[in-house]
Amino acid sequence: MELSHLNPNTDSNRPQSPTVSVVIPTLNEERNLPHVFAKLPAMITEVIVVDGGSKDRTVEVARRLRPDAVIVQQTRKGKGNALACGFAACTGDIIVMIDADGSTDPAEIPLFVNKLINGDHFVKGSRFSHGGHSHDITRLRKLGNDGLNLVVNVLFRTHFTDLCYGYNAFWRAVVPALDLPDVKLPRPSDGRKLWGDGFEIETMINIRAVAEKLKVGEVGSTEHERIHGESNLNTFRDGFRVLRTIFSEYGRMRRRRGAGLRPFVEGLQVGPARGLNPVPPRHAADPRRDGGHLNRARRTDDINKIRARELDDLGGRPTQDINKLRSGPSAD
Ligand SMILES: Nc1nc2c(ncn2[C@@H]2O[C@H](COP(=O)(O)OP(=O)(O)OP(=O)(O)O)[C@@H](O)[C@H]2O)c(=O)[nH]1
Ligand SMILES: [Mg+2]
Fold first, then answer.
1. Cα-flanking dihedrals φ and ψ of residue 37, to 5°?
2. What is the pTM of this model?
3. Most Cβ neighbours (<10 Å): which of 6, 84, 175, 252?
């Protein structure tokens, strides 16, 4: 069901049982996928596998296990880019992001969906509250996670208990609020990752959700050890990337506020128990293209300058169409 086709002002038009897309980024996960797919609950209406050029039989295995799965090839490198490509391909009312290594338990998805149906815009899994637990995190990583968590809670006046965990769910209608790096931008020629394309993605998404004043909830989640294979995460390199992300997101939020951009939440209407609908825009502009919700922006010039700076940071221009990235179950 397309939220954008609903009349936002009538309860009867809100989705009674929202459709749920699950986005699974994969990089050499052929041995783990059977465990993950086996635990996908029946409520999932769409499975999007975003592959990062796996050298093993990940894509083949995904197709065999779930012939209805949509397989997307990501446009650049990194988990962040994979998720952005996955979100762009989703059609469900709700999007859930899980890992393919067996560390996140798909059986928990109904907990996330339930919280969304009950009024949250965005629901974060937490390994350290609401009964959550991690069988995987090392002492060093826990220390780093706690430190980064504290910095965010002080700067953004939030109450996150688990900043860097990648098990989240949200209404598809809030994807524009996350304003992720355009999937159509080219890969940098020097081989580096664009900002937001790496493991900083979780932090970026979580911070943007609060910066746009979305209603963010947490549910307890149990993280397991990766079943087979090796982690793609580097504790120090990726930890510093997360720290940089926090400060850069703080600056971004202040610039946007300074320019008079209204928080995204003001353009949404939440149903008391059933769903979330976009309110018709009060301006003719496309909120995605304009980087937000221009509703009472002070000066269009300011916004254009901010947008140009963000594009500069990303270092390129669009080249491809996301529709071309989405291949059906039988395509390569
Ligand atoms: N498509 C794609 N998927 C990726 C990429 N990097 C990681 N992934 C997937 O993202 C998920 C999380 O990656 P992991 O390497 O397990 O990293 P992590 O879970 O943050 O770290 P660990 O706790 O050490 O496992 C897995 O499903 C990976 O296959 C990438 O560049 N592209
Ligand atoms: Mg993992």
1. -65, -35
2. 0.81
3. 84
